[in-house]
Amino acid sequence: xxxxxxxxxxxxxxxxxxxxxxxxxxxxxxxxxxxxxxxxxxxxxxxxxxxxxxxxxxxxxxxxxxxxxxxxxxxxxxxxxxxxxxxxxxxxxxxxxxxxxxxxxxxxxxxxxxxxxxxxxxxxxxxxxxxxxxxxxxxxxxxxxxxxxxxxxxxxxxxxxxxxxxxxxxxxxxxxxxxxxxxxxxxxxxxxxxxxxxxxxxxxxxxxxxxxxxxxxxxxxxxxxxxxxxxxxxxxxxxxxxxxxxxxxxxxxxxxxxxxxxxxxxxxxxxxxxxxxxxxxxxxxxxxxxxxxxxxxxxxxxxxxxxxxxxxxxxxxxxxxxxxxxxxxxxxxxxxxxxxxxxxxxxxxxxxxxxxxxxxxxxxxxxxxxxxxxxxxxxxxxxxxxxxxxxxxxxxxxxxxxxxxxxxxxxxxxxxxxxxxxxxxxxxxxxxxxxxxxxxxxxxxxxxxxxxxxxxxxxxxxxxxxxxxxxxxxxxxxxxxxxxxxxxxxxxxxxxxxxxxxxxxxxxxxxxxxxxxxxxxxxxxxxxxxxxxxxxxxxxxxxxxxxxxxxxxxxxxxxxxxxxxxxxxxxxxxxxxxxxxxxxxxxxxxxxxxxxxxxxxxxxxxxxxxxxxxxxxxxxxxxxxxxxxxxxxxxxxxxxxxxxxxxxxxxxxxxxxxxxxxxxxxxxxxxxxxxxxxxxxxxxxxxxxxxxxxxxxxxxxxxxxxxxxxxxxxxxxxxxxxxxxxxxxxxxxxxxxxxxxxxxxxxxxxxxxxxxxxxxxxxxxxxxxxxxxxxxxxxxxxxxxxxxxxxxxxxxxxxxx
Length: 801
Hints:
The protein is of the alpha+beta class. The protein has 24 helices and 23 strands. The chain has a five-stranded mixed β-sheet. The protein has a five-stranded antiparallel β-sheet with strand order 5-4-16-15-14. The chain has a three-stranded mixed β-sheet with strand order 20-23-21, with helices on one face. Strand 1 and strand 2 form a beta hairpin. The termini are far apart.
């Protein structure tokens, strides 16, 4: 107890002089406005209790500093701030600025302690003679304490407590000031004060204020500039030159005259300063804070949304958001301004903000997931032709629109599933222009599914019995529906999920429905570009990666998530997909007109029901992009008849509408990269993991079906008959042909002969002689008309790739 009593006496001794002066003068309250009556009823006992509770030390508040988001090249994307502040050392503040601040706020700052008794009494006398508060009595140290307490406050109630005109707060503030004076030198206190002070119009701290009002650093401030800023601290809003230029000048001139009175400046300096303009409005730098003021607002908001998910920044998104605006971080991102400019050029060339249809493009880097560009035709805002929705990202992110159905771009995942199961790249399926799948069972991860009434057809010119390559080139719907029935929907769903696809509206897995291969759920350009990038990276899928580095205000690195990649597909499977989708951009393919340059390109079109959205997703080994044109306003309508690039659309397709957006963007972006080629698929990938098919030509269909089932295949009998040399009613041939083989468990279709060529010269119905020698040096381009090489039978003079 003796130690406590001794400490209490020390506290009392520290403030007794202040209390004595305060009681005698009635000047205790902030601004010296409370009269003697303000202390009425304050007993000696109560005063003693208050003194015992006085704080013994002052915990310095960390300065709230702005965070900066940078592009990959170091250029500024956006500034996040609750207070626009750039802390500086006192040595980085012009001496005239230091003198101006001391002159107007506390001219005896370097002579007194925590309390300026002389200044307090002088202020008291002036205030009482004027009948109102004209001059404050608080020292710079006391002002610093008060500003710090306000800075620490997190709620309106805490702010009110920190600024309350009460005896208790003023006494506590003084005790804090005493602690500050003991711990820091006068220059350190002035430095902290200058960095903490509010200088109006969103500028906090002397450096931010100098840059804001004059576009100069604090070290370069002139006398009239310094006088203006020094005068602002008393009333940052009232003396703000952007609010009232005359009032700002009057206050500035008060500071200049006070500096002359104190002989800080000469008469000639004062006269010159008084005649100078207050500010040049053209040089006032707007405080463009937040993503809304960014050159890339949608990308910026996507970055911030991802950062808010980082638990290291706060237990929830609100805390993380506050941290981002006050921690003084430097956040480097993946955005490449050159690639972003190429994508924006494409948007500008092929669409307009006022179009009825929306257009959007995302470009990512295969093998890393770096999101290089993200653009859309609707600009940021709430006016006509503007939106706050990011049309490129999922609904789970703030402002994310939530995607569009992806149409036939889903066929790429069916191709991957088929290759993974051993289907040859030249696997044939009889694909009429319309098929009846009503009630047909498709296997799923949980069993089977079917559609009660479903008779889909083709929307493009078709090859009657196409290979996988030909079907991809022409986007043959019936082929891929039948192929997905053979592979099962579960492998397609699993591959799509492993490549980052899920419903962008609900965040749930894509539905395994009969029409899955023709498009399902809602997906976004960033999802599609990232998924296709995995094919380009030979099966390596990387989650979209935006934040590449984070540094604290001291320049020290803060842990940031790096590339998050996994081998989602075997390289040989991805090579096979690349070969098939490469053919889409070759002669005869729906994407042939979009081909450019010397690098290998691959891609796939996508058009959904009623043309409500059209896609083109494609890639080289260096960049992957997805473009979409869609109706984004409920109720969704056919794009035909809506405007794009200011013109009414009379057609809407993946290749003709979304394709040009993709082409212009990628052509501009890829000029910064060397020419690249895809890795050619292996012989095994080309020919597939096939089993021999039994020879059944000429057999009774029922016997043939049993024989095929016994060999491990599924069987279907095609409707109608075909011209054949076999006896009418017997098997003419199968699809796939017997010489081609087929993956185990796949569907084999029996075609019935009509006997129309029975008496014509024919080839033998016995199998051709076998050979086990594979073809030598197969060509790098796959011939879609040539069946794959089979270990048992050679085709096309040795097979083709």
